[in-house]
Amino acid sequence: MFSSIDSISISSWNVHGLGQKHRDPDFLELINHDINILIETWKGVEPDVQIPEYNYYCKQRTKANKAKRNSGGIIVYYKKKFEKGITYLKNVTKSQNRLWMKLDKSFFGLQDDLYICGIYIPPKNSPHYNNEYEGLESEISFLSSKGNFLLMGDFNSRVSNYSDFVANDENNINLTHILPDNYKSDFQLTRKSQDKIINPQGRDLLDLCVSAQLRILNGRFIGDLLGNMTFFSMKGCSVVDYAITSESLLSSVNYFIVKTPSYFSDHNQIVTHLKCDGKLPNINNINKKIDFEFKWTNTSKLLLENELNEKYIYEELNNFQQTNFENTQDGLNRATDLISDIYITLSHKCMRKRYFKKKRKRISNWTDSNFFALRSTFNLYSKKLKLSPFDQSIRLKYFFYSKQLKTVSKLKKRI
């Protein structure tokens, strides 16, 4: 038996140091997507970062001799059920600021393999900056014939609402002697941005998009039609976190979202939803949540005897016996699924179902009414700040309540 994969959600978030956030239920709720790319984790070698129901890849930045803590770092969490469809590509880049992986087209039902890069581009004045865009462009060129791309992360690049494509290139006579014979005209889809500033790294990013025919999702799709800010500080705000795809992948984008500001980081989480058409094998229904059990009753024996005399049971059992199952793991799984379906059908007809009680959401023992009230107030100003990013009074209150919430959270967890 199979379950369909009709979409996949991929999030990216500069978490400004992971610390013990992955132990916080509120944080885990925010990274419940199929794939979660965490940037600037500040984790060292062999970090203890495992979370339930997810596997992970990680990359560390070499710690400077005089540094008090680690910097940089990327962790990618992906759901265990997708393990066979995702490959970590260790050898594509030597950079400590990029992590590449491949989504298999057959597993996820994509037109082409999808190459995803979790990326952090340091500011140009950072000692960790090393011709990042040149290296990224080289890696994209190496993989370009193999599939499509999705780049997600913190680019420290402000592009305002400048075009990431060559405008009217199909009608521009002046370009005909420059462009190659196999050049494809750009798909011209306008983009908006609340950030009206462009910086040198932003121009580098736009040049990369034009040369590699990549398109920025921010400000283009349902969920972020305004081009919301992705970074907030006391001094201001900007758009520096992006999802960028191959132009040919745009038709597979369901929507793109910039989440509301969170006290977990000064960056907003961004989420991309892609259309898929894959099939996920349910080995013995291992991935299916069952909320009941079958209960044998006084009448079950008689009902079962009557049911075993029905014609459909003979037909199903005969079909099972006549089926030629391959001597492989897939063949074994298929045989198990068929016989299990027969047993389950009989159980539904002969036994009573007893439903499990729903477990209440666990509330951490350090939370109380004051904490919830403070968090509610913070969430209110978080939404206001996203809607009015240039309102100084809202920004001040947002950071005031953010600081209070972090302080109260730390204090109560120690009790």
TrEMBL record:
Residues 115-270 form the Endonuclease/exonuclease/phosphatase domain. Coiled coil: none annotated. It holds the Pfam family Exo_endo_phos_2. One of its GO terms (molecular function) is catalytic activity. Gene3D superfamilies: Endonuclease/exonuclease/phosphatase. This is Endonuclease/exonuclease/phosphatase domain-containing protein.
